[in-house]
Design brief:
UDP-N-acetylmuramoyl-L-alanine:D-glutamate ligase, nine-stranded mixed beta sheet, four-stranded mixed beta sheet, 35% helix
Chain lengths: 315, 315
C-alpha cells in the first residue's frame, strides 16, 4: 500500500566529531521518504525555495519518491544548523531559518486524500490536524512525530492531534514531558489512553521501546563503530517502520515488531554518513544483512517447554 | 559449580522519589551473593563492623550464602548515603564512611582458593589483584566490576587487573573513560584487546551490551512501572549473570547470552524495592516468569530461509 508524508525538506549545516557539512540535504520528510521508498510507494508533501537544487529533486525521483507535491516557492529553503558533541545524543542548535517553511500550509491534491498510510512528520500540530482533516478517507494508519518545542508551546493542539493518530513517535524526554510522568512505562500507558494504539519511544543509540495494548517490544539499536552524523536517524527509523507496515499491510503485533526492527536498520544507516549519503544508496542486500545482524544481536535461547532455570533455594 | 565473591557489605541510607530508607542492608557483595545464591553455591568474603545486625547474617544464611568468611571487626560497618533524582540514572552521593572497610584486606581461606568462579566486586584494584594472586588454581571465570573512582585514581592497577580477568562489567561512562574512546564499540574492542574475553556494558534502564570476540549481544532491561531504588541493580545483574554461568558451567556464546538475560532479570527485581527486600524474597516462579517476560519483550520474527524483505527499488 502507499504512503503519504507531510513534513520538512531542508538544507542542514552540521558539525560532528567526524567533520562538518554545509547546506546538505536534510529535513524530516526527506529522510523519511528516502527510507520508506525502498519498501513502499511514497508521496512527499513539502515546500522548498528557489535555491533548492535540481540534483536533490533527482535524488528523490531516483528513489521513486512521488515529488509532484513538493512545492517550490519564492524565497529560500528551510535551513538548520547544529553541532553534536562527542556524546552523539547531545546536540546544540546554532541557527534555524524557517524561510519558505514559515508559510507552509499543506494542501493535499485529491489523489493523495485517500492514501492508506500517513506520516505527519514534525511540524506545527495545528498543521498536522489540518492535514488529517483534509483526508477524504481516514487512513488505515496515521503516525505522528513531534518535538519538545511543540510540547512546550502547543500542548493543546498536540494533545488533540495525538488523540487522532494510531502511532506516536517521541523520544524519551519528550514522552516524559508530554505525559507529565517520569516513569516511561506509566507515561506510555497514559498516552495509549489518549487514543494511539502504539507509542514508539525513541532512545537513540539505546534502541526503541514499542508500547502497545498488552504488548511491549524492545528493539535494540545496532551498535556502530563509526557514527558520523545522527541527524535524520529518527525520521529514517520512522520511514523504515512505516515503509514496512505499508508494504506488508501487516498490522498484527508481529508486523509492528518487525517494523521496529526495520526502523532500527534504517536509523543505523542514516547515522553512518552526513546527510542522506548512506541512506540514499542502499541495496536490498545491505538492508537484509543488517536486519540479520540485528536478529543476531538480540538472539538468545528461550526456555523450552518444560525447561526450568537452575535453582537451588527452596521456595 | 561454586562461586566466590569479594566485595563490600554495607548499610545504605537512600532517598528516591519513592521514599527514603536509613541504614538498610546494601553493598556490592550483598546484592551479588543474594542474586547468585538462587542459582549457584556462593561464598562471600567481606568485612563488617560490630554494629552489623544478626538478622542480616541470617538473611544471607537463609539464602545458603556461605558467610564463614564474613569477617566481623571492631568498629562500624561501611556506610553510604545518596539521593536519586526523578531520572533514576542520576544519583548524588551525600556521604561515604568507609569505617572497617578502610582496612579491608581479604585473606582467602584455603578451601576458597580453588573456587572455579570468582567475582571481584568494586573494591580497590590493588586488592582485586591481591585476591586473584591468592588463588591456588586459576578460576575458570574471573569477573570484575569497578567504578569511575578507580578509573580516575588507580588506572594502572586497574589496567593490570583488567588484563587478568575474563569478564569485565562497566557502565557506559566508565567504559568510555577507561578506554579513552567515546565510541562504545571501539571502546569495547580496545578493552577486549587487553585480555578479557567478555566486556559487559551496563546501561541501566537501557539494558546491557555484551561484547565478545566476534559476537555482540544486546539484552534489554525489563521496563518497570515502579522503580523504587536503583541501588544494587548492577551487582544483582552480575549475580544473576555469574550465578547462571556457574550453575550451568556453560561458557558457550549461548550460555553468555542467557546469563545476560538472567542478569537483567535479577537487576529488574533489585530496583523494585529498597535494599534487598525484593531480590531477597524471590521464588523460582518469579524468576522464570520474568525470564519469559524478557523473552517476550525482545521477540520478533527473523527472516526465514529464502524469505526476503519487501523491496521496490532496483539496485
Amino acid at each position: 500500500m502507499s504512503l503519504l508524508v507531510v513534513g520538512s525538506v531542508a538544507y542542514d549545516s552540521v558539525e560532528t566529531t567526524a567533520g562538518r557539512r554545509n547546506d546538505a540535504l536534510g529535513g524530516s520528510a526527506t529522510y523519511f521518504s528516502i527510507a520508506s521508498s525502498y519498501f513502499a510507494c511514497t508521496s512527499l508533501v513539502a515546500v522548498v525555495g528557489e535555491d533548492f537544487r535540481d540534483e536533490h529533486v533527482e535524488l528523490l525521483k531516483t528513489h521513486r519518491v512521488d515529488t509532484s507535491s513538493l512545492e517550490r516557492r519564492p524565497g529560500l529553503t528551510f535551513r538548520w544548523s547544529g553541532v553534536y558533541g562527542a556524546d552523539v545524543n547531545s546536540r546544540e542548535t546554532l541557527d534555524t531559518q524557517l524561510n519558505v517553511f514559515a508559510e507552509f500550509s499543506p494542501k493535499l491534491q485529491p489523489e493523495l486524500r485517500s492514501r492508506p498510510y500517513l506520516f505527519l512528520a514534525n511540524i506545527d500540530p495545528a498543521l498536522q490536524v489540518d492535514v488529517l482533516e483534509q483526508m477524504d478517507v481516514r487512513p488505515k494508519v496515521v503516525a505522528l512525530d513531534t518535538m519538545d518545542f511543540w510540547i512546550g508551546g502547543k500542548k493543546d493542539s498536540l494533545t488533540r492531534v495525538v488523540g487522532s493518530v494510531d502511532v506516536l513517535f517521541m523520544d524519551e524526554g519528550e514522552i516524559r514531558s508530554f505525559a507529565g510522568e517520569a516513569n516511561l512505562v506509566r507515561a506510555a500507558e497514559a498516552i495509549l489512553g489518549l487514543g494511539p494504539t502504539t507509542v514508539v519511544v525513541k532512545r537513540g543509540e539505546h534502541g526503541v521501546l514499542v508500547f502497545r495494548d498488552g504488548s511491549t517490544f524492545a528493539a535494540p539499536a545496532f551498535p556502530l563503530p563509526h557514527v558520523v552524523d545522527p541527524t535524520g536517524a529518527g525520521d529514517s527509523f520512522a520511514g523504515g517502520f512505516l515503509g514496512y507496515l505499508a508494504a506488508t499491510d501487516d498490522l498484527s503485533d508481529e508486523g509492528f515488531r518487525r517494523a521496529a526492527i526495520l526502523g532500527s536498520v534504517m536509523g543505523s544507516f542514516a547515522v553512518e554518513s552526513f546527510s542522506t549519503d548512506r541512506i540514499g544508496s542502499l541495496t536490498q542486500e545491505d538492508v537484509c544483512q543488517r536486519f540479520q545482524a540485528i536478529t543476531e544481536l538480540s538472539r538468545f535461547a528461550p526456555l523450552r517447554d518444560g525447561e526450568s532455570l537452575p535453582w537451588r533455594i527452596e521456595d
